[in-house]
């Protein structure tokens, strides 16, 4: 029976400074706009994706506490480079192995949610960011890289916007 891989540890670097307070990270979804096609030749309606119509990306970080480091990093109107490094424990033919995964983002804060002050309450501060660049590396393989400003959308090694860049 296969043993599922699990996250052993993770650390976030915000403009190159390591954060000991990062508790949770929800990476952005890569989503494309769609067009509906329906006519008399089709039974119903089909929905087709358009790789040139990338939807806005956002990500969420949760920190154990609101610290000056978090507040400085996520000032509104300031672009920040984030590097989340993830150590994964896995099995390879029964032997324990570790893998290094990474998520690299360029983003701006759009929401800072400070927790309700209540005795015994978990003190998680949530920061939601607007993402303008995202790269996901699993092991040594880049599985996704999205840079809408430069018309780049690599998914599983395929450059979905190469033809559009060539035209422009």
Lay out the secondary structure.
Blueprint: E1 6-14, E2 17-19, E3 22-26, E4 32-37, E5 46-54, E6 57-63, H1 68-73, E7 79-92, E8 95-113, E9 125-138, E10 141-147, E11 152-155, E12 158-159, H2 162-167
Antiparallel strand pairs: 1-2, 1-7, 3-6, 4-5, 6-9, 7-8, 8-9, 9-10, 10-11, 11-12
Any overview of this molecule?
- The strands form two sheets. Strands 1, 2, 3, 6, 7, 8, 9, 10, 11 and 12 form a ten-stranded antiparallel β-sheet that branches. A two-stranded antiparallel sheet has the order 4-5.
- It has 168 residues and is mainly beta.
- It has two helices and twelve strands; from the N terminus they run E-E-E-E-E-E-H-E-E-E-E-E-E-H.
- It is globular and about 65 Å long.
- The model has no long low-confidence stretch (mean pLDDT 86).
- It has helices at residues 68-73, 162-167; strands at residues 6-14, 17-19, 22-26, 32-37, 46-54, 57-63, 79-92, 95-113, 125-138, 141-147, 152-155, 158-159.
- The N and C termini lie far apart (51 Å).
- Helix content is 7%, strand content 59%.
- The longest helix is centred in the middle third of the chain and has 6 residues, at 68-73.
